[in-house]
Amino acid sequence: MLSHDLIKAALEKALSTGADYAEVFAEHTDSKTISMVSSKVDKIEDAVISGVGIRIFKGLRCISGSTSSLLPEAVLACADKVAGVLNDTPLISNVNLTERLFGDIHPVKVVPLSVANSTKIDYLREAYNAAKNYNEEISQVTGSFLDVDHKILIANSEGLLAEDRQIRSRIRIQAVASKAGENQTGSCSPGGRVGMELFDLYNPKEVGIEAAREAMVMINAGYINAGNMPVAIENGFGGVIFHEACGHSLEASSVAYGNSQFAGKLGTQIASAKVTAIDDGTIPNAWGSINIDDEGTPARRNVLIENGVLKSYMIDKFNGRRMGMESTGNSRRQSYAFAPTSRMTNTYIAAGNDSDEDIISSIEYGLYAAKMGGGSVNPVTGQFNFAVSEGYVIRNGKICEPVRGASLIGKGSDILMNIDMVGRNLRYGQGMCGASSGSIPTNVGQPLIRVSSITVGGR
Questions:
Q1: What is the rounded distance in angstroms from the CA atom of residue 330 to the CA atom of residue 317?
Q2: What average pLDDT does the segment 204-231 reach?
Q3: Other C-beta atoms within 10 Å of 380: how many?
Q4: Per-residue exposure over 298-324, b if at least 16 CB sit within 10 Å of its own CB, e if not
Q5: 268: how many CB neighbours lie within 10 A of its CB?
Q6: Is 147 helix (H, G, I), strand (E, B) or coil?
Q7: Other CB atoms closer than 10 Å to residue 85's CB: what's the count?
Q8: Is 448 in a helix, a strand, or coil?
Q9: What CA–CA distance (Å, rounded) separates 281 from 275?
């Protein structure tokens, strides 16, 4: 994307006014989204993102800028503008770059850019039709297929020069069931750091059926009574609660400034001894996986919580300076136009030793959250509120009738302590996480867990 001479010149210009660290991040991304509505292709969107982000540090100051042009004069002008914020004596005058090859632990079999739109549409239509034909009460179906080819180059004043290519694919089906003037929605949206082999992992017909099944279950559901009760949260996307209510509070972007419920608590027990939580960017072909982060640090498996004890935070270079700690390979950004910061990759509660049967049978009356929806959280206090998109009453140790309108309300530090059973069957779910450095792909995950007491919102 950029010549080595240009990168070197840009770094040296960025350092020319006294910065102690400089970084160049170049990107070229091709993406395609195919959308389907009313049995027809609604639109095909092709997008290209290309540009350069330049960042400098001076102690605990961080200055960043970007340009959408890869032309040498634009890149150097951006470096000059960033440097212009400082006005000190140069600390580093010469940069010697050494190219590093980190390898690719996420092999792609079929690059989506090389595949005709018609082939992608065929897969999408198969999923769409499976949802539409599931039941006569399925009134509407929408679907989309996304593929992204994200190429990045990172160089810095420490001499690093590295590149990576990140290919991801995802299919999404949403079905609406209608009955007696009411509508309920179901969805299914698997994805991975894979190419067209996504459909070797996920049968498109089954994706459509799952979306429609959820919609049909919920259109026939009643309501749960609000109150404090034990809740069993299913595996896969159920891990979104840990991601939102606890994971963000373990990112250095919060911890470094004391804006986290877990700041200063390394080595202390913050969760039940049943809980081990991990952020792992090295899981092969997982949706949130990386080879290197957006500062060029290799991906790692970071144990955040081990048997209830806080072991690590997720740290980027800049916030690591404030904390006096090294990067953990968690610096991420949506694009060159965003300054990177500490973010999650694939974050999950590890498998435990309890059986699913024992977890359910242990609850006399409570809620089985089969699927979680969206929610909100305050990372400073850990207070959260999450919708349950598919839920059931548990009565006398058995899963009974479905219920709609349930939500889980609580505080991250409390829920960690109240997890008293952890199942064995770990699964992941895919999502997009938004924060100060933009929207990035992340995996969430867990086995079935039991929370001994949590506030359930309902009627």
A1: 9
A2: 96
A3: 15
A4: bbbebebbbebbbebbbbbbbbbbeee
A5: 10
A6: strand
A7: 14
A8: coil
A9: 20
**Residue 459 pLDDT > 90:** no
For 191, list phi and psi in degrees, rounded to 5: -160, 175
228 vs 259: CA distance, rounded Å = 28
- Residue type present at position 357: E
Tell me how far apart the alpha carbons of residues 402 and 404 are, in angstroms, rounded to a whole number. 7
Q: Give the confidence band of 134 by pLDDT, cuts at 50, 70, 90.
A: very high
| Torsion angle of C-alpha atoms 64, 68, 71, 75, degrees rounded to 10 | 0
**DSSP structural state of residue 248:** G
Q: How far apart are CA 257 and CA 330, in angstroms?
A: 17
Question: What are 402's strand-pairing partners?
Answer: 392
What distance in Å separates the CA atoms of residue 43 and residue 285, rounded to the nearest whole number?
Answer: 28
d(CA 242, CA 403): 23
Residue type present at position 140: Q
Q: Is 157 exposed, middle or buried (0-12, 13-18, 19+ CB in 10 A)?
A: buried
Q: Tell me the pLDDT tens digit for each residue of 171-195.
A: 999 999 999 999 999 999 999 999 9
pLDDT band of residue 381 (cuts 50, 70, 90) is: confident
Q: What is the pLDDT of residues 413-438, one digit of tens each?
A: 899 999 999 999 999 999 999 999 99
* Residue labelled with tokens 């399925």: 138
Name every residue whose Cβ is closer than 8 Å to that of residue 71 and which is 6 or more positions away in sequence. none
Q: Is 315 helix (H, G, I), strand (E, B) or coil?
A: coil
Whether the full predicted model's pTM is greater than 0.90, yes or no, is yes
Helices within 263-421 (DSSP H only):
317-323, 356-361, 412-418
pLDDT band at 250 (very low <50, low <70, confident <90, very high): very high
Banded pLDDT at 377 (limits 50, 70, 90): confident
Q: Which two tokens stand for residue 415?
A: 């829920």
Q: How many CB atoms lie within 10 A of CB 139?
A: 15
Report which of 6, 14, 17, 11 is spatially closest to residue 69, judged by C-alpha positions. 6
Checking DSSP bridges between strand 383-395 and strand 365-377, what pairing results, if any? antiparallel
Local confidence band at 229 (pLDDT 50, 70, 90 cut-offs): very high
Task: List for the chain the helix, strand, coil content (%; round to 5).
Answer: 20, 45, 35
Q: What single-letter DSSP state applies at residue 224?
A: P
> Are the beta carbons of 331 and 316 closer than 8 angstroms?
yes
Please enumerate in sequence order all residues whose Cβ is within 8 A of that of 155, keeping only pairs 6 or more positions apart, or say none: 7, 11, 23, 24, 97, 161, 162, 296
